[in-house]
Design a protein that fits this description.
The protein contains 14 helices and 15 strands. With 378 residues, the protein is an alpha+beta fold. A hairpin with a 6-residue loop joins strand 1 and strand 2. Helix 1 crosses helix 2, helix 3 packs across helix 4 and helix 9 runs antiparallel to helix 10. The structure holds zinc ion. The site of zinc ion has 8 residues, from loops.
């Protein structure tokens, strides 16, 4: 019991979450399917923060309390197929063994990540895996599963967009020829203005140091808004987010740190950013999960349209922008344009925001953002 308590402390620093997790290991207190633990469902039931509870489960896997499972839900009949330990076992398309329909897997719709209590820490004789999987039990706190709880699933996308998950489960990547659909993801690209000249003029070491610091500023802003940095390409950064509002807030928060003046250097770094959203596919590139498709290509090209200290975004992002930035005179600093993006047949509408001009008149960006509003507007 002492060891168990110690491992739970390693999984979460939050005492309340720790107490709740402890109950999972005392089946007389908490009666549920120990082979199918759903962190968001439990968080809602416990009235705790979903992300914090999910992070505790991920850390719990690291110390051996829990095991992680990937499974696919048939969109036609709701049947839950498989409990795979690796994302690489999820097929792009599959046939439901119950209703016979073929369906495509979507990381943000059909693919769920759940957890189980590992056999080592399970009290024997109370729950056996076969009974727990197929026969619902009764009890005051038993959580049954029904379609109305589908919004409480931790999806594959929820996990892939959790920095802690990417850190703990580095080995969770797709197989070489596997690709999985994502219905909706927001992509942010950033790049440094004139970095070649900076390296040339000020030398490799000072420039390198400044670029590393600039990565830190971007990483902090991205992770503060539920995003992850997928990769850096030279001095450019690609990050993904759950939705457009998160990406916008991260971009504006990042821009607050620029132009970046390194304390020891005589030069400053200026960045340019672009945001776009839509469907994508997740693939394996260099043993890491990466994202591809028209949305990603367009996001990169939209970023390419930005000048120094400019944020350029597409129509779906603008819709969320209007909801997020209700107050203030933002509209005076955002200009609509119609452009032809390479690789696309029809012209697209983009919005260009001159962040520096706005800040010259208003000061810090962050203090002007309507954070509360962003969370409540659906
Ligand atoms: Zn089915």
């Amino acid at each position: 019991l002492k060891q168990l308590k110690h491992l739970i402390q390693q999984s979460t620093q939050d005492m309340v979450i720790g107490d709740k997790l402890m109950e999972l290991f005392e089946p007389t207190k908490f009666s549920t399917d120990l082979d199918y633990l759903q962190p968001f469902r439990l968080a809602d039931h416990w009235q705790l923060d979903r992300r914090a509870v999910l992070e505790s489960f991920v850390r719990g896997c690291q110390v051996g309390l829990f095991a992680l499972h990937w499974q696919s839900h048939c969109p036609h009949c709701g049947n839950r197929a498989g409990q795979h330990s690796a994302i690489s076992n999820i097929e792009t398309t599959q046939q439901c063994s119950v209703c016979g329909h073929d369906y495509e897997n979507y990381l943000d719709e059909t693919v769920e990540v759940s957890f189980s209590v590992t056999p080592k820490y399970r009290k024997t004789g109370v729950f056996t895996p076969t009974v727990a999987l197929f026969k619902p039990k009764t009890g005051p706190l038993f959580l049954t599963t029904s379609p109305e709880h589908s919004g409480q699933k931790v999806t594959g996308k929820d996990c892939l967009l959790l920095p802690l998950f990417r850190e703990v489960f580095k080995d969770q990547t797709l197989s070489e020829h596997q690709s999985l659909n994502i219905r909706h993801i927001t992509v942010l690209f950033t790049d440094i203005v004139g970095s070649t000249a900076i390296y040339h003029e000020f030398g490799d070491i000072p420039a390198f140091k400044a670029v590393q610091n600039h990565f830190d500023i971007l990483r902090n802003a991205v992770e503060a808004h539920q995003g992850v940095i997928v990769k850096t390409i030279g001095d450019a950064v690609m990050a993904v987010f759950h939705d457009e509002a998160d990406a916008l807030l991260a971009a504006l928060e990042a821009l607050d740190g620029f132009p970046y003046n390194h304390p020891d250097q005589k030069f400053q770094l200026t960045i340019k950013l672009g945001i776009h959203s839509g469907s994508a596919i997740a693939v394996n590139l260099n043993d890491r999960i990466d994202y591809f498709g028209t949305t990603v290509n367009s996001a990169a090209r939209i970023q390419g349209l930005a000048g120094g200290s400019e944020l350029v975004f597409s129509e779906p992002v603008y819709i969320r922008w209007q909801e997020t930035m209700k107050s203030g005179d933002w509209v005076n600093y955002v200009h609509q344009e119609t452009v032809q993006l390479k690789g696309l047949l029809s012209p697209v509408t983009i919005y260009r925001m001159d962040v520096l001009a706005w800040r010259t008149h208003h000061g810090s960006l962050d203090s002007s953002l309507n954070h509360g509003n962003c969370q409540t507007v659906a």
